[in-house]
Amino acid sequence: MKVGFIGLGKMGAGICSNIVKNGIDVVVYDINPANMQKFVDMGASSAATVKELAAQVDVCITCVPMPKDAKGVLLGPDGVFENLPEGGVHFDLSTLDIETVVMLEAEAAKLGKKYLVIPMGKGPAFAADGTCPLFGGGDKATYDKYEECLLKKMGKPAYIGDVKAGCALKLIQNLMGMSINAVCSESIKLAKLANIPKEQFIEQISNSGAFSFQFKNTASGTFDEDFEHPVFTVNLAFKDVRLGIEMCESFGQRVPMMSRAREVFAATAEKYGEENFTATFKML
């Protein structure tokens, strides 16, 4: 089995590292040559174009920022779908919208290829150490075929259902996580106004019913007001929340609390888009 990996940003790089470290034959491509070199040094090969990569692999994986980026990489004469060998498989790690993943699955099927969504449930640190949850959506037989030999080497996969279900779970999780983050920012602001020491605040909240995964991972940096070294930017967080709210609207379902989070991230993105997503604190 030969695996192609396209998109070696922080999230993609962690997953790709796990695959390479497990001894799988990997070829990589990224618009930034420096991102590819790390994996070449680890033993992977590189491709000069998406088309060149797709033509030589059995399974292609992409992890790109936006739906338009996924369409640009996957569709057209120079894209993945038209250049994967007959019967080839594509795994999409990107956070996309339901309309896009349904369309991409259909486009792949027209060419005799399989398209599955495999979005990630946690951030770069978990992608890098192999403990990142992966939400599988798409053809069950294809998922089963690659679960042991590839997916478990990427992270902790779980089959959710069709591509709509896999995509929806990711969007719901993002809405919850980013909404909780905005609340954490407000809580930390209150603690600072009340002159509660950072260590005492974090310890006591961590032992209370208010504790959350988001608090654990962001409280220290937010308390220190360190936003200039982003693990995940405000722009990306806003994109995730926006796509989630658009899904809710397509369902005809009101989500007033999470809709407010979209407003918070939209306003933050206008001023601090390239800072860490916890920069919502600066809007208080």
Task: Describe, in plain words, how this protein is organized in 3D.
The chain has 284 residues and is of the alpha/beta class. The chain has helices spanning 10-21, 33-42, 50-54, 67-74, 80-83, 98-110, 124-128, 140-154, 163-193, 198-206, 213-223, 234-251, 256-272, and strands at 2-6, 25-29, 45-46, 59-62, 89-92, 114-117, 133-137, 156-161. The chain has 2 domains: 2-161, Rossmann fold; 168-283, N-(1-d-carboxylethyl)-l-norvaline Dehydrogenase, domain 2, CATH 1.10.1040. The protein is built from 13 helices and 8 strands. A 6-stranded parallel sheet has the order 3-2-1-4-5-6. The protein has a two-stranded parallel sheet with strand order 7-8. Strand 1, helix 1 (10-21) and strand 2 form a beta-alpha-beta unit.
Give the fraction of residues assigned to helices. Answer: 55-70%
Which band does the percent of strand residues land in? 5-15%
* Intertermini distance: 51 Å
CATH-level-2 architecture of the largest domain: 3-Layer(aba) Sandwich
Supply the number of structural domains.
Answer: 2
* Element-level helix/strand string: EHEHEHEHHEHEHEHEHHHHH
> Over the alpha carbons, how many angstroms does the gyration radius reach?
20 Å
Strand order of the largest sheet: 3-2-1-4-5-6
CATH fold node name of the largest domain: Rossmann fold
- The structure class reads alpha/beta
Count the helices. How many? 13
What is the general shape?
globular
CATH class of the largest domain: Alpha Beta
Write down the oligomeric state.
single chain
In CATH terms, the superfamily of the largest domain is NAD(P)-binding Rossmann-like Domain
Instruction: Give average pLDDT, whole number.
Output: 96
